[in-house]
Amino acid sequence: MVLDSIDKQILQELLKDGRKSLSALSKTIMKSNNDTMSHAGIAKRISKLEKLGVLSVQGNISIKNLKYMAAFILMEMKNYEEVQKIIDAYSECPRIFMLAQVTGQYNLILGVIGQDMDVLRRYINFCGPTNKKGILHSAILFTSEVIMPEFMPVNLFSGVSKEYKCENICKACNAFLDGKCGGCGNF
């Protein structure tokens, strides 16, 4: 899909303020002849961008303001089948805010979020994918501060854990049983 200048203007304005009204947008979105767009025209464009999967208006969360921590897990996998198993197992994990296939030494990178460094360590040591079959090598990078994006679409507060999908069962985990971990659905 090719975005035109109006689509790009709409996306830029919504990036600044996703709650901006259609009438406010109609004052800033300019057509090629320097006329402003009508709010009805902007609504149609937004609807089209949503239907095409280019735009999703949502409530994003500032992990910095919550004082949460993040880490990145880089993994070199044995083969593509093992890559796909990790993707399938962790794609709905509430602690994962990013999951991407990469090229180079590593096949996958996962962005992980936790309330503090101890929670991140427990996740990585007990629940995270680094202990799974098919991993040849992994590296873990703990962030000191997430600078951008300021707000991220993270599923922290659903209260629902997809623990069985990753095959980690909290009721059988020593960290959970000892009270050192609240489980993935507990932020």
From TrEMBL:
<dbReference type="InterPro" id="IPR036388">
    <property type="entry name" value="WH-like_DNA-bd_sf"/>
</dbReference>
<protein>
    <recommendedName>
        <fullName>HTH asnC-type domain-containing protein</fullName>
    </recommendedName>
</protein>
<dbReference type="GO" id="GO:0043565">
    <property type="term" value="F:sequence-specific DNA binding"/>
</dbReference>
<dbReference type="GO" id="GO:0005829">
    <property type="term" value="C:cytosol"/>
</dbReference>
<dbReference type="GO" id="GO:0043200">
    <property type="term" value="P:response to amino acid"/>
</dbReference>
<dbReference type="InterPro" id="IPR019888">
    <property type="entry name" value="Tscrpt_reg_AsnC-like"/>
</dbReference>
<dbReference type="InterPro" id="IPR036390">
    <property type="entry name" value="WH_DNA-bd_sf"/>
</dbReference>
<dbReference type="InterPro" id="IPR011008">
    <property type="entry name" value="Dimeric_a/b-barrel"/>
</dbReference>
